[in-house]
Amino acid sequence: MKRVxxxxxALIALAAMTACAAExxxxxxxxxxxxxxxxxxxxxAPAKLKLDIADITPMGEKxxxxxxxxxxxxxxxxxxxxxxxxxxxxxxxxxxxxxxxxRWVSKxxxxxxxxxxxxxxxxxxxxxxxxxxxxxTAAKDVSRRFAVGTSNISVVNTRSHIMKVYRDGKIAKKIxxxxxxxxxxxxxxxxxxxxxxxxLTMGKKAVETMTSSWxxxxxxxxxxxxxxxxxxxxxxxxxxxxxxQSAGYYQYLGRSNQSHGCVxxxxxGAKWFYGIAQRGDVVKITGTKRKLDWRNGWSYWQxxxxxxxxxxxx
Length: 314
Known about the structure:
By secondary structure, the chain is mainly beta. The protein folds into 2 domains: 53-149, Immunoglobulin-like, CATH 2.60.40.3710; 152-299, L,D-transpeptidase catalytic domain-like (Beta Barrel). Helices cover 6% and strands 35% of the residues. Strand 11 and strand 12 (162-167) form a beta hairpin. The longest helix has 10 residues, at 267-276. The chain is globular, with a radius of gyration of 24 Å. Pathway: Cell wall biogenesis; peptidoglycan biosynthesis.
């Protein structure tokens, strides 16, 4: 099954600034400093804008452990005008260092990815020294420490219909699967095919409601309509791909591809995978003609290192 997950609400609302000017002497002055010039005429000077961080993903060491592919995603509370100056104030320190770089994906969001996967079982400290930004001394410096857990790297072969899960470099389990069957083309893309490429796990639910609404089918009378409660669902993209327990059809697991794009697994295999899954774990899928877009979810490893670094402002 497959669904397009609803966007999570922002943890902190984005601040909205409105600038206005009035010639009337009775107009109120808001958030402005009043200064005296040589002629004794009072003028207003607009208050300096303050840049803050609206959100950091993932959560800190006390809330979760993350996988070896995890990105650091920083969202600011307003558009960043001088990206190079801000990026120079962002620091990442790991107990077991690897090369890494920032990439700006919007005017407010920048993402840190390493050249190779993080080393497992360590701590990584992120610090943003925004108080050092000119005109931004009122801002508070922010830091967050991440805990990297076990290295979980899964390889899904859609042709042999097997998912191999490696934990800290050793094969831990082989799980029979069924991937996307293909055959439903929208805008030139076969959306029933599972995307091939390096995915990262983004979240999980013990039971996920999956419906056909992602493909525009909402009428229960439509033969393509479905709405099912699916156990042990681990999300691996924004386009609705999961690793989850197969809702029946166990005869196809390990034999053929019959899903709408997700990776269906055996009940025991799906439950086990759900239990070990951390956000930022690597799920590499091979064997299909549909390529994973690097902007689909946390699929940043789809870009090679040279391509990734081109997104830096430094």
